[in-house]
């Protein structure tokens, strides 16, 4: 399995897909840099006047609701519809799901537009599946990814999307398949936008890899393993950010293989 994941990483570097991002103001720079580091090509665009052309031009679409407003929501829905028409994959990051009614009503519209993949932390997955009993904290998770597996299965069955729950263990849920990636570092939660970067990287992988579950798994493993290696050298969140970008760019097959800690649960 590790060898085929590595092949996928090389394929992204070789094909360098153009990824259309409608994402939040906090992470635009981090995610564009993360996409470049893995070998993809980012473009951030949300103007209504160019959505149709941009979605047609790009190999995949990433929608992230981190700093949404009405104009952006319209852009997101327009882009998702165009992606569906053009049979382009579309990835959803439901940042802050459950925090406000505006986020939740926007997410209802977006999930109905059939995202190919949904990647989020456990609190967001629980909120999206309406499993949460209390209000979420905001953009950070208050739950372990294992607590959101049932919610992820419901989302997968209802909307057909491959689900990736991130956290200490990243869990990919796709039909009967459940695969766990036990890499990463707790220091990664101290840098804003690493979940958003993981989502954007999934956007790059899904653009060039036919098997959707493999694509999500390879992207998720790359992010977590690069983060784990970078965190060993980092002195804190600031240096982690820089070292992670470098590791996404220069990770070798030996490093990837040595660190890869993936378990297929079903
Ligand atoms: N406690 C942890 N231990 C190891 N890796 C983690 C931990 N929490 C998050 N990560 C890693 O950080 C990245 C972002 O995940 P996460 O923090 O859950 O997303 P978000 O920023 O959307 O809340 C993922 O690659 C994940 O593997
Ligand atoms: C802090 C913040 N506020 C709105 S979007 C955002 C970034 C969230 O990024 P991530 O979920 O990747 O940590
Ligand atoms: Mg997030």
Automatic annotation (TrEMBL):
Name the Gene Ontology biological process terms.
thiamine biosynthetic process; thiamine diphosphate biosynthetic process
- Listed pathway(s): Cofactor biosynthesis; thiamine diphosphate biosynthesis; 4-methyl-5-(2-phosphoethyl)-thiazole from 5-(2-hydroxyethyl)-4-methylthiazole: step 1/1
Q: Reaction catalysed by this chain?
A: 5-(2-hydroxyethyl)-4-methylthiazole + ATP = 4-methyl-5-(2-phosphooxyethyl)-thiazole + ADP + H(+)
Q: Which Pfam families match?
A: HK (PF02110)
Q: Which cofactor does it need?
A: Mg(2+)
The molecular function terms of the Gene Ontology recorded here are: ATP binding; hydroxyethylthiazole kinase activity; magnesium ion binding
Instruction: Cite the binding residues for ATP.
Output: 119, 166
* InterPro entries assigned to the protein according to its UniProt record, in alphabetical order: Hyethyz_kinase (IPR000417), Ribokinase-like (IPR029056)
Record bears the keyword Metal-binding: yes
Q: What is its EC number?
A: 2.7.1.50
**Keyword annotations from UniProtKB, A to Z:** ATP-binding, Kinase, Magnesium, Metal-binding, Nucleotide-binding, Thiamine biosynthesis, Transferase
What is the enzyme's class at the highest EC level? transferase
Q: Which residues bind substrate?
A: 44, 193
Give the family, as the similarity comment puts it: Belongs to the Thz kinase family.
What is its biological role? Catalyzes the phosphorylation of the hydroxyl group of 4-methyl-5-beta-hydroxyethylthiazole (THZ).
Quote the HAMAP family the UniProt record gives.
Answer: Thz_kinase
Protein name from the UniProt record: Hydroxyethylthiazole kinase
What's the source species for this entry?
Ulvibacter litoralis
The encoding gene: thiM
